[in-house]
Amino acid sequence: MAERKWYKGDTHLHTVNSDGILTKGQLVERCKELGLDFMIITDHNFNSVEESYYNGDMLVIQGQEITGDNGHVNIWGVKVPEEPPYALDTKEDYKKIIEKCRAAGATVSLNHPFCSKCGFRFDIDDIYCDCVEVWNTIQHSDNMINRDWWVKQLLSGRRLPAVGGSDFHKEYASPIDILLASPTTIVLAEENTPEAILRAMREGRSVITNSPKSTMIELTCADAVIGDTVALTDDTRVNITVTKLMPMHTLTVYNNEKPIYTFNSGSRYIKACSFSCNVEEKGFVRVEITYEYKGALKKLYKTVEKKFLDCKREEMMPFIRAFTNPIWFE
């Protein structure tokens, strides 16, 4: 097996071929400027990429967002083996088209499942997917509902990998790239090819973070990495390395639903730090870094959420800066 490396990418992107404002070429150049290694163009019900290709060192993976009023599904790596318009009126309709895509070799991701504007309108616990988009666009309260559902799946024993995607259409407030590649999915893969990147995402070998240059978390257990399964012993320990930990951010290591290690950066920016702790129970270990808005900034963010989302929650939960997929323990 080739040595795995980290590759940065955006899994959810739109062009002028659906409802974005950039051409495919413009979008590729913007992603290259941000330092991404791969990108997946997922126009709504349209194949903008006939087959995956390279533009210089940038890997552009074929994708499509199957889009209906009842939910959105990303199809990666192959062409959807059906032409739109798609029948997406019932859960069974979604199951049928997902099964066709699976048979064709696609990787399937459920997108922003609990988005208050365009989430799924039916129970998704028995909808097949290879991944779930836990983090969609810049951080907001709907993502925390996605996170809670994902953790519930993990606690039930379902090994469901999490990914993030910017769902980029355009910059709304500024020409500066604040939405593109926010979040960034960083994948631990053997090489930067469509097959290796998508296989690594299906295996849960991804860390999701705020942007290409943001906080990074590495979680290991001896030689094991995220996505691996380890035999639990009395002295099993996990090791965590974090770079670019921002002030007032809190790192939590979870063994199943139980926090087994917590660290707050206080007023410091920490360029790099490392921790280790014992694994106490069979199941899984994952890491997340969170932060909270306070005072006037919190009030402003709540106002923005109410304007742009159908978000009726009065209490704002802590947001995530970065999180890992699990290592599993048996």
Any descriptors?
alpha+beta; 18% helix; 330 residues; 5-stranded mixed beta sheet; 35% strand; 12-stranded mixed beta sheet
Major sheet characteristics:
12 strands, mixed
Task: Give the low-pLDDT segments.
Answer: none
Put simply, the count of helices is 5
- End-to-end distance: 24 Å
Net shape:
globular
Beta fraction: 25-35%
Element order: H for helix, E for strand: EHEEEEEHEEHEEHEEEEEEEEEHEE
What is the number of beta strands? Answer: 21
Question: Overall mean pLDDT score?
Answer: 95
SS class: alpha+beta
Radius of gyration: 19 Å
Helicity level, as a percent range? Answer: 10-25%
Structure report:
With 330 residues, this protein is of the alpha+beta class. Helix content is 18%, strand content 35%. The longest helix has 15 residues, at 141-155. It is globular and about 55 Å long.
